Amino acid sequence: MEISENRKLRKKPTAELFTPVPDYITTILRGVGQVMFQNNALTGILFLAGIFYNSWLMGLGAIAGNIASTITAKVLKYSDEDIKNGLYGFNGTLVGIITLTAPFVIATWTTLLVQSRLKEKDR
């Protein structure tokens, strides 16, 4: 092995040296891991497992949001290194989750507001 090739290998995280995972999958998983400031695809897998365990719909939302934000960053020609590190995927992950949660939260707040107004009228 040449010295320059050895230097390239040292730059990669140990967990990714021997995994035949495509770059786009690693990028998506890193984006999920970045939610907790972890630039690690394995962390992203664990977070996604937890999200899917709670709700498969939220898991799909997280993935869809992550993919949309990563593609947007690519189209807008942001730094390829930042994209590969998942820096543009973590916000998309959170937005994908909240988009599916927001209608229920808003309905709950509206119900509580109407209920409190009706109680005020009864007094």
How does this model look, in words?
This protein is mainly α. It is 76% helix and 0% strand. It has 6 helices and no strands. Helix 2 crosses helix 6. It is elongated, with a radius of gyration of 20 Å. The mean pLDDT is 85.
Kindly state the number of beta strands. 0
Average pLDDT figure? 85
Order of helices and strands: HHHHHH
| Domain module count | 1
Number of helices: 6
Give the biggest sheet. Answer: none
Q: Note the overall shape.
A: elongated
How many whole angstroms does the radius of gyration measure?
A: 20 Å
| Fraction of residues in helix | over 70%
Distance between the terminal alpha carbons, to the nearest Å? 84 Å
Structural class: mainly alpha
Strand composition percent: under 5%
Q: Regions with pLDDT < 50 over 5+ consecutive residues? A: none
Characteristics:
123 residues, mainly alpha, 6 helices, 76% helix, 0% strand
Concise summary:
This protein has helices spanning 3-11, 23-33, 41-54, 56-75, 80-84, 89-122. The protein has 123 residues and is mostly helical.
How does the SSE layout of this entry go?
Layout: H1 3-11, H2 23-33, H3 41-54, H4 56-75, H5 80-84, H6 89-122
Helix pairs in contact: 2-3, 2-4, 2-6, 3-4, 4-6
